[in-house]
Design goal:
Layout (H helix, E strand, L loop, with lengths): L1 E8 L6 H10 L3 E4 H4 L1 E3 L13 H6 L1 H6 L1 E3 L1 H9 L3 E7 L14 E6 L2 H10 L9 H13 L8 E4 L4 H9 L9 E3 L5 E3 L1
Parallel strand pairs: 1-5, 1-6, 2-5, 6-7
Antiparallel strand pairs: 3-4, 8-9
Length: 190
């Protein structure tokens, strides 16, 4: 959906949704991948598993996590729409290897274990990471680093959200135009 497209990734509770919200508040175009692109599917074939294996989603945290995918065709279609100068895709998908090469850059939100543990404890039980088994699973993913793309631009996600977004934006050339109304009737663009 942009001339330039960026992926913002990280383990659960690293701040992807918060970054997306802050970027939107600053006027940037954002796709919330986990809300707009995600589905339960076969990581090998991409075929949807919605409505199938319902017990497995609930009973096996690892199984549910491995099958959290983004629709690759939707990602490609959004990227083909050049109506925005920049689009940020924020979220996580286990099939990122099928579309990661399409992005102009990938940002990885990094945080230390203590910060992650603190954030996980604040998660509501009805969100992923809110239950003890999910927290343990996420901490394991954080430790082994296998849950996120390799080689991305690391962003310190332990900072206040405004600083996280400022650090991310410092890596790209985004013109942020502000309109100021002067005492006269003219409008000046800076």
């Amino acid at each position: 959906m942009g001339v330039k497209n960026y992926l913002v990734e990280g383990v659960s509770c690293s701040g992807k949704t918060s970054v997306a919200t802050e970027l939107q508040q600053q006027g940037h175009h954002v796709i919330h991948g986990d809300r707009e692109l995600a589905y339960k599917g076969d990581p090998e074939t991409g075929l949807s598993l919605e409505g199938q294996l319902d017990g497995a989603w609930v009973m096996d945290v690892s199984f549910a996590h491995r099958h959290h995918l983004w629709c690759v065709e939707k990602v490609k279609a959004l990227m083909a729409d050049q109506s925005h100068a920049v689009t940020f895709f924020c979220g996580g998908a286990r099939n990122f290897s099928t579309f990661i090469g399409l992005f102009d850059a990938v940002f990885i939100l990094q945080l230390d274990r203590a910060t992650l543990e603190k954030r996980l404890l604040m998660r509501p039980e009805d969100e992923f990471g809110g239950k003890a088994e999910e927290r343990a699973f996420i901490l394991g993913l954080h430790e082994n680093g296998q849950d996120v793309p390799k080689g991305g631009i690391e962003i310190n996600a332990t900072q206040p959200i405004g600083a996280v977004v400022a650090e991310l934006l410092s890596h790209i050339k985004v013109q942020s135009f502000r309109y100021f109304q002067w005492a006269s009737t003219s409008t000046t663009v800076f």
